[in-house]
Amino acid sequence: MPNIQKPKAEKRKETINIRALTQQQLLIDKAALIANKSRTDFMLDAACKEAEEVLLDQRLFFANEQQMNAFEDALNQTPTKALEELLASKSPWEK
After folding, report:
1. pLDDT higher than 70, residue 32
2. What sign has the CA pseudo-torsion 4, 5, 11, 17?
3. Does residue 2 surpass a pLDDT of 60?
4. What UniProt keywords are attached to this protein's entry (predicted)?
5. What percentage of the chain's residues is helix, strand, coil (to nearest 5)?
6. Domain spans of the chain?
7. Would you tell me how many other CB atoms lie within 10 Å of the CB of residue 29?
8. Quick one: which of 27, 55, 68, 81 has the fewest CB in 10 Å?
């Protein structure tokens, strides 16, 4: 799984505001301290990791026999230029 980390030279431009319970903030702060990270870095790392998991979990799907046969037929076709470009492109979290 790709590891999303902010390159040192890149400045953060976007603001994300969230509200939390005091207990949640204390928990996050304690974990961030143990991980030797700022609260922001800790929360961004955790949120990005979860986002990657959600996106990667979209790989399971259910199909009946007819749908599976159509899917296999599509896989066996010669790739189109559009498909080749898609497969060569970066994942959304790598951009």
Report:
1. yes
2. positive
3. no
4. DNA-binding, Repressor, Toxin-antitoxin system, Transcription, Transcription regulation
5. 60, 0, 40
6. 22-88
7. 13
8. 81
Using CA atoms of 58, 62, 68, 71 in order, give the dihedral in degrees to the nearest 10. -20
For residue 92, how many C-alpha atoms fall within 13 Å in the half-sphere facing its CB?
Answer: 7
pTM above 0.85, yes or no: no
Q: What is the pLDDT of residues 38-76, one digit of tens each?
A: 999 999 999 999 998 888 888 777 889 999 999 999 889
Which of 4-8, 17-21, 86-90 is predicted most confidently? 17-21
CA distances from 5 to 36, 43, 54, 66 (A): 15, 12, 18, 43
Of the candidates 50, 35, 38, 34, the residue with the CA atom closest to the CA atom of residue 12: 38
Handedness of CA 84, 67, 65, 73 (dihedral sign): negative
